[in-house]
């Protein structure tokens, strides 16, 4: 039986050159399937607000939302390392609320680690949370909670000034104690440079093949989110027509009286 994955295992994978697989997940049945397939890390992302709740962006997602979905995933008892996003305003106000909210995702949600967006600006927060023995995954580059400052979902690090800032961000979050860092929406060459210089695993999303691992949103790879189609996404299945066919068949059989049959009824 596979043992539960720990942060030491994730760090060992970088050291040994084994690529790290990570996907978002928001519910119990999907978590079970993912774990049976052998995923290394599960992220309960605040992307749940977009792909699951229908918001235009991740900003409306609350701590209660994140705790609810984290609990649902953890009930599947996955062997994968479970990481939960800290939503907007859960760590930006002050250090006390940041530490409290990180603790809630561990204590109430059951996550093994939390993820925080930002670089140099959040390094003190990462340091404060890791000092509580709560593992932290950092997230730099295109940070969705900062979409208004960035003017939308734009690739970061294309000019020298931005690139130097992201290199500084990567060094800052590692120094602050993050055990891994997500690199989102940055040029391939820059991601490769950060990865080669970093002592912690890099998990890419729209950051090219040189990262130590990759993460995508589960709804994107299954064809279940039509709000956007970023270039970095690869669709591994198109489940929308499959689901639509099942629903259409159900509706037709109900209308025609073909369902339920005797086999679906009780005597």
Provide a short characterization of the protein structure:
This protein has helices spanning 7-16, 28-37, 48-51, 63-74, 95-107, 123-130, 147-150, 160-176, 188-197, 218-221, 240-256, and strands at residues 20-24, 41-44, 81-85, 113-117, 136-141, 180-184, 202-205, 213-216. The chain has 267 residues and is an alpha/beta fold.
Q: Mind explaining what this structure looks like?
A:
It is a single chain. The chain is α/β, with parallel strands linked by helices and 267 residues long. The chain is built from eleven helices and eight strands. The chain has helices at residues 7-16, 28-37, 48-51, 63-74, 95-107, 123-130, 147-150, 160-176, 188-197, 218-221, 240-256, and strands at residues 20-24, 41-44, 81-85, 113-117, 136-141, 180-184, 202-205, 213-216. Helix 6 (123-130) packs parallel to helix 8. The longest helix is centred in the middle third of the chain and has 17 residues, at 160-176. The model has no long low-confidence stretch (mean pLDDT 96).
């Amino acid at each position: 039986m596979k043992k539960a994955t720990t942060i030491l295992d994730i760090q060992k994978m970088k050291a040994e050159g084994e690529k790290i697989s990570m996907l978002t997940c928001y519910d119990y049945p999907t978590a079970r399937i993912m774990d049976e397939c052998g995923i290394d890390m599960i992220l309960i992302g605040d992307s749940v607000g977009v792909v699951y709740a229908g918001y235009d962006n991740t900003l409306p997602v609350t701590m209660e939302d994140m705790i609810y979905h984290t609990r649902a995933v953890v009930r599947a008892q996955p062997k994968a390392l479970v990481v939960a996003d800290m939503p907007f305003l859960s760590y930006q106000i002050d250090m006390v609320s940041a530490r409290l909210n990180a603790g809630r995702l561990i204590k109430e949600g059951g996550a093994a680690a939390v993820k925080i967006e930002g670089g140099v600006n959040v390094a003190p927060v990462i340091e404060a949370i890791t000092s509580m023995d709560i593992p932290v995954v950092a997230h730099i580059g295109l940070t969705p909670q900062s979409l208004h400052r960035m003017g939308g979902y734009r690739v970061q690090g294309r000019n020298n000034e931005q690139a130097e800032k992201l290199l500084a961000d990567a060094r800052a979050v590692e120094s602050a104690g993050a055990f891994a860092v997500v690199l989102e929406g940055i040029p391939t060459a820059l991601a490769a440079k950060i990865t080669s210089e970093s002592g912690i695993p890099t998990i890419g999303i729209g950051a090219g093949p040189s990262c130590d691992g990759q993460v995508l949103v589960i709804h994107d790879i299954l064809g279940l989110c039509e709000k956007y189609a970023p270039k970095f996404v690869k669709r591994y299945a198109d489940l929308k027509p499959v689901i639509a066919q099942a629903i259409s068949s159900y509706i037709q059989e109900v209308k025609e009286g073909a369902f339920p049959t005797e086999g679906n009824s009780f005597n």
